[in-house]
């Protein structure tokens, strides 16, 4: 089990991370989300041992990890990090890149393992291609395969699918996260992709300016968003006064997702003027204005500019 206890961390005089405490059991998958610059990569680099942690400790199975000042080569043998700038050798082939991480003692076994890894990241056709001739997304997939080569116990992934097209991304995510689960490999991903965090992780840690904003299962996080910052990860959420939806006279605001608002055939006290309709494939996202505030809701067809519609709230 990995235990992370970060009291505080700073590069210079500004505190970057503060009071981050969590544990990760074998096979668990933690997604770290938060706006750009909130400290996600820094957290992964501290855990991996690239940065020295002055105030706090990181343990793996009760053993304290020493960090870069006490180890010759930063990093731990049981842990692999796929950083945003991936560490792959440009002038060797994809196959040689993966092979460089295997034992070299049994040629046949190594060749089988390379084929297995290439299958996981769907790179079989590029086995003999020089890495320098690959696209950004293909390089990212080689970096992922390379990190898996030696069957790590913990995998740290910094924006693992950021260069991969949507067409391939979903399938690749299912394959890679499925592989990790089957092999009981724990995983921490830093990601901006809320769909990935909701669909694949066992736990989400949301950071805000280096501190824990929210933590819990994907279901808990999604169902308990209260602020615009928290809701901002899950699409075009609205922050609206509660009195629009219930009897209370409260001016207190609540988060309302676009799918929770519907056009009502009856008059309501929530009328908006439509500005734009965005086609989203299986629905339209309608942008309207209420009380000088932009409001988003889902609808099954586009709505003409300037139309005034009544909205009602559905849980
Ligand atoms: N080597 C460094 N020296 C000083 N400050 C740094 C260094 N690396 C990062 N920072 C600062 O630490 C803060 C956190 O950076 P970090 O890269 O961890 O954020 P992030 O959440 O991963 O961002 P992104 O989502 O954009 O990748 C930022 O304010 C950044 O400017």
UniProtKB/TrEMBL annotation:
<feature type="domain" description="ABC transporter">
    <location>
        <begin position="2"/>
        <end position="234"/>
    </location>
</feature>
<dbReference type="InterPro" id="IPR027417">
    <property type="entry name" value="P-loop_NTPase"/>
</dbReference>
<dbReference type="Pfam" id="PF00005">
    <property type="entry name" value="ABC_tran"/>
</dbReference>
<keyword id="KW-0813">Transport</keyword>
<dbReference type="InterPro" id="IPR003593">
    <property type="entry name" value="AAA+_ATPase"/>
</dbReference>
<keyword id="KW-0067">ATP-binding</keyword>
<dbReference type="GO" id="GO:0005524">
    <property type="term" value="F:ATP binding"/>
</dbReference>
<dbReference type="InterPro" id="IPR003439">
    <property type="entry name" value="ABC_transporter-like_ATP-bd"/>
</dbReference>
<protein>
    <submittedName>
        <fullName>ABC transporter ATP-binding protein</fullName>
    </submittedName>
</protein>
<dbReference type="InterPro" id="IPR017871">
    <property type="entry name" value="ABC_transporter-like_CS"/>
</dbReference>
<dbReference type="GO" id="GO:0016887">
    <property type="term" value="F:ATP hydrolysis activity"/>
</dbReference>
<keyword id="KW-0547">Nucleotide-binding</keyword>
<dbReference type="InterPro" id="IPR050093">
    <property type="entry name" value="ABC_SmlMolc_Importer"/>
</dbReference>
């Amino acid at each position: 089990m990995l235990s992370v206890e970060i009291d505080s961390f700073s590069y210079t005089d500004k505190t970057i991370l503060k009071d981050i405490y969590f544990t990760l059991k074998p096979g668990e998958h933690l997604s770290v989300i938060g706006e750009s610059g909130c400290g996600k990569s820094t957290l992964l680099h501290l855990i991996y041992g690239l940065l020295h942690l002055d105030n706090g400790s990181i343990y793996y199975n009760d053993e304290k990890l020493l960090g870069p000042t006490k180890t010759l080569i930063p990093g731990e043998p049981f842990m692999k990090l796929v950083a945003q700038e991936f560490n792959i050798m440009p002038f060797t082939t994809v196959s040689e890149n993966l092979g460089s991480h295997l034992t070299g003692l049994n040629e046949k076994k190594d060749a089988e393992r390379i084929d297995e890894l290439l299958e996981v990241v769907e790179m079989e056709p590029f086995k003999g291609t020089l890495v320098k001739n690959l696209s950004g997304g293909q390089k990212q997939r080689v970096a992922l395969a390379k990190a898996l080569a030696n069957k790590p116990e913990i995998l740290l992934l910094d924006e693992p699918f950021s260069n991969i097209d949507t067409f391939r991304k979903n399938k690749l995510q299912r394959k890679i996260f499925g592989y990790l689960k089957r092999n009981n490999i724990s995983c921490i991903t830093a990601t901006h992709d809320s769909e990935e965090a909701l669909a694949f992780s066992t736990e989400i840690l949301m950071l805000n300016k280096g501190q824990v904003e929210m933590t819990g299962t994907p279901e808990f996080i999604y169902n308990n968003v209260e602020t615009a910052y928290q809701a901002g990860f899950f699409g075009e959420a609205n922050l609206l006064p509660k009195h629009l939806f219930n009897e209370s006279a409260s001016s207190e605001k609540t988060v309302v997702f676009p799918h929770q608002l519907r056009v009502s055939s009856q008059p309501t006290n929530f009328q908006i003027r439509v500005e734009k309709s965005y086609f989203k494939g299986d629905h339209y996202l309608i942008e309207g204005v209420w009380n000088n505030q932009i409001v988003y809701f889902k609808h099954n067809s586009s709505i003409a500019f300037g139309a005034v519609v009544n909205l009602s709230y559905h849980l």
